[in-house]
Amino acid sequence: MTRGARALVLCPDIRALRYDLDAAERLAEAEGLAGAIGLAIVHAAILPVRQMQPNTLFGSGQVENIAVWCEQYEAELVIVDGALTPIQQRNLEDRLKRKVIDRTGLILEIFGERAATAEGRLQVELAHLDYQQSRLVRSWTHLERQRGGFGFLGGPGETQIEADRRMIRQRMARLRRELEQVRKTRTLHRERRGRAPWPIIALVG
Q1: Nearest of 177, 155, 176 to residue 166 by alpha carbon
Q2: What's this model's pTM, rounded to 2 decimal places?
């Protein structure tokens, strides 16, 4: 996610759910999270949701309003401060023609930017891929097309979405191996320090 990207922040106020904070406080918190990774917030709004729509979360009129805001404020990204199902995210992206992320996706972006160690970066990427894998739904036309027969693209009859899932699984498996190696190396270094015949001194400041 590009720092400085123009973001629209939406706080769904769902009647059926109970919240620890009121809608205004939750919206302010979401704006703070978006600002923490350098996004430019061009508009923020609270949207009352009387009944959650399974396809888009918001009602059709609200989705139309969001689309108008996207054009009006030239937003590149829409952040929904709540949980979106893969289908809801897909449908919103289809209608808004913008990238849409929910609160979990935003928090993963923050973790990814702030991960300072090799282990931390691997853990964040693994979590991000796991999240991305759950978002893979049959959405765009190209995902429905059959690919394959050429070896490097996968077996005969493999769809694009199956290929995407396979690549994500392979990447996750490699990350897990790298993460295990990092942990083994860290344990080995700790054991060596413990066996050192001289005291270990840390300089602070």
Answers
A1: 155
A2: 0.69
